[in-house]
Amino acid sequence: MRLLLRCRPMDYAADLHIHSPHSRATSPDCSPARLAAWARIKGIQVVATGDFTHPAWFQRLKDELTPAEAGLFRLRDERPLPSPLPGAAPAASTPVRFMLSAEISCIYKRHGAVRKVHNLLYVPDFSSAERINRRLAGIGNIVSDGRPILGLDSRDLLEILLELAPEGFLVPAHIWTPWFSLFGSRSGFDRIEECFGDLTGHVFALETGLSSDPDMNRTISALDRFALISNSDCHSPSKLGREVNLFSTGLDFFSLRDAIRGNQRETFPGTVEFFPEEGKYHLDGHRSCGIRLTPSETRALPGMRCPVCGTPLTVGVQHRVEELADRSAPLYPSDAPQVFSLIPLPELLAELLGVGPTSKQVMEQYSRTIALFGSEFALLLRTPVEEIGRAAPLLAEAISRMRQGRVIRQPGFDGQFGVIRLFGQQELNRPTGRRKSDRVQLFSER
C-alpha cells in the first residue's frame, strides 16, 4: 500500500542533519520557517528537522508542520517567506519539505572502555517519534539538550528504533570525529560490528562528517557495503548545505531512504562535500600550542604527545582512516554516487573581496549573486562557467578552479577549521593600502 504513496522521481538536494535552538551553541534563528527560507536560498528541497526528542521542539514541529508527501512535512503556513537575503528572492515554487530526525549522544561502556557515539534517527511520522521519545525519557534526560546525552548503548538505541519505528532508520553520525563518533580516536571502535553487534545488518549508511570525504572512506574495504551520506550538521540556518545529498527519486521519505540503501547513482547521484581539509579535525594536533601535524609526524613523536606541552595530541580523521585502511587508493563500483567538492559561496566571495565571510560586503554580493543565478547550488554545481563569466569574470574563474579541485589547502586540526583558498597571495592584485571601505568589483557593469 505504501508504494502507492510514493511520488514521481525528481532531482533534489537533502540536508539530513541539523539542530534546533534547543541544542547547545545553536542560533535562536533555527525556526522551521527560517530554515525553509534559507533552504530556498541554498537550493535544498529536503531539510531534517533535528532534535525531535526535545519536548518543546517536538511540540513546535507539530504546531508548525503538516503532512505533505509520504513521510515528509511542509510548513503549515506557506505564505511567501521573507528572504533572509534582502534583494534575493529565490523561486517561491521551490518545494521545501521537512523530515523528522534526531541526534542521540550515546555514552556507555563497551569492551572495557567508555564509548561516546553520536547516532542519527529518521522516522516518517510524529507517532513513531512520540513512541521513541517516551522510551528515551524513561532512560535519561531528553529535556536539557536538543541532542540528548544518554547512557544508552548504540546497539540498544538501534533496537529501540527497530521496535518502535520499523520504517525508520539509523545512521552513525560524523563517524570519524575524535570525541563523539563510531570510529573516533578518543572514544570509538575499530569495526562497526563491535558497536552494533547482532544488529549491524540493519545499518546501511554512514555519515562521513566534514573532515572526511568518500575518497578517504573508500580506502577501507569493511565500509564497502555502506552508503556514505554528507550533511551540514548546522547550528544556524545560514550554514545549511555545507554538505548535502543529491537524489533522483520520489520526493518522499521511503523513496529517499531506499535510494540511500540502494547506493546507486541512478537514484542517489552523489554528495556535495567540503574539501575534507577544511574540517576542524582533519589532521592531528594541539590547538592551544598551535601544533598541527600529519599522521606520520605524529607517529614519530614519543607517545604521540604534543612537542610543546607534552599532553596527548588530538588524533584526527586522516590518522584514523590510515589506521583502518587496507587499500592504498579508493575503490568505487561503477555505479557509485559521485562526489562534488565545493566551497560555500560566502567563503568563496569573502576570499575574492578580501573580507570576512559574514561581513556586510559579502552579504550584499551574496544577495546579488543569488538574485542572478537562482540558488547557491544552481551556481556552484550547474551554471556553465561561460554564463557566470558574462556577469562576473573573477567569480567564474574561482568556480572553475573549485570544480576542478584546483585549491590551496590549509588543513584543520584539534577543533580549528581549515582554510581552502582558490588564489595565491599575489593573484588577486589587491593594493596593499586598500581601505576596508573600498569595493572590489565582482560583477560587470551593464
TrEMBL record:
Signal peptide: none annotated. The keyword Hydrolase applies. InterPro entries: Pol/histidinol_Pase-like (IPR016195). One of its GO terms (molecular function) is helicase activity. Keywords: ATP-binding, Helicase, Hydrolase, Nucleotide-binding. PANTHER family: PHOSPHOHYDROLASE, PHP FAMILY, PHOSPHOTRANSFERASE. This is UvrD/REP helicase. It comes from Pelobacter propionicus (strain DSM 2379 / NBRC 103807 / OttBd1). The lineage of its organism: Bacteria, Pseudomonadati, Thermodesulfobacteriota, Desulfuromonadia, Desulfuromonadales.
